[in-house]
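stuck on this chain:
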Amino acid sequence: MALSTTRIVKAWIVELLNSWMIASALIVLAAIAGLYSAMSASPLYSSTAAVGLQAIEELNESEANPDALLASELAEATASDIVDIVTSSTGREIEVSISLDTDTESTIEFTSVSPTPELAADDANAVAETYAESRVQRTRSALEESLALLEVNRTALTSSAGLDEAVNATDITASAAQLAELNVLNERIVDIELALNSAESAARTVRPAKSPSEPNSNDLFTNTFLGALIGFGLAALYALARSITSQVIRSPRDIEDFALPFLGVMPLVKAESQIFLGNTSLPEAEAAISRLRLGLERRNQLGGTSQVLFTSPTSWGGTSTVAGNLAAELGRARRKTILLDGAFRRPDLHNVFGIAQTPGITDHINQGVSLAQVAQRAEGLSNSLIILPGGSDLESPQDLLLSERLEAFFKGLVQQADWVVMDAPPVLGHTDTLVHAKHGFSVVLLVRVGTTKRGDLREAVDALHSVGADILGLYVVGDRPEQWQELMGISAIDLTAQSDLATEKSFWGEINSKVSS
């Protein structure tokens, strides 16, 4: 439970940061609304009437306790319908709040808010007087009930003891205890009769409401601050709802439970050419591709494959850029590299390099066009890189994908190059990439921040696992790559193989010498 809560909180914070423009807009709009409300609101006037309470000890124990009396009467005044009574008598809605006077003991305040000072005072006084009358009437009724009960008891006692008005008669049969009880009853009756005579003092207006000279002040700062606070609350709720319901991958948290190696992150590239190596205005992107190459070469030295396939769960047009730049980087590092377009239905790799689509792979396999005619080199790139475009479109390439000719073609490429890199179509929708993966290609799954959905990624991973594909890991493309730096220490090599320090140093030294030569 604690882990789940922590994940939700982290996702909420990330979503709030990602939605900072929406959050800022909500805060500003709510603050403006609060300011406008304060400035445009009609003036209101407040006036307060205070009613003092007198404890009547003859009623009950709570009446003898000022604190208990005040608490019970405040509850009575709040729960009663005195405001409704005044509303009915005036024929208009009134707004009156009831509270304790903290400066004076046993005093209840009635505060009215009205559009005019006269109405504010009148409403407060009317409710206060109605409550005072109610309190007096309740007190009188309670005393009268007590008096009636005592008189019934006295009559019964007098009758049972044989007492009458002639108390000196010789036939008095009352016991001393009965006489004592009779005296107590008589004293109690006298006390209650005296209390009845002063019942009017049980509640009275001690401070009548007066017409205020100035309206209530509209606190602009407070209203604006409250508006901004409400706006932040709305933004927080919006971010929380998106973090819980949204399936789009936005942060490292969203790929943690896939248990796949993290191969790196590349920022989104906005340039005229999708092949950006050597573009001094895109150093971060170029460095990201260089790190990917070094990581894959390190894995290859430790026994990994040199056939790499780049794909994504669904179509978003990023695999051609990453695969093309990685192949160009391998060629620049003097590695004999063959880059091929595995999207036989709708080839696209040729557009990245500005070369012809045909003749291509499908023409070579289906029509016998020589490989020398198919192979092309891109202008401005290393001669170590050979590009094999897709060739003529195939609406249904199933026969080609399952043919022995294609399998033999792939095996021949491996014998002629250090690296074979494929730009493959999305995993979902067709089985093309799953077939390619069974031909010895290890898979790099591309994830685009803000576009790729967790459900699609999960479905793609499951599909690749179902055919026994070797998934090298996830490669992320998106804005704000710095938020992924925490995962940079987790690589395919770290999770799949270990090498001794001497071998590692030797390997890196070899790479550095080849790069610098």
Summary: The chain is about 50% helix and 15% strand.
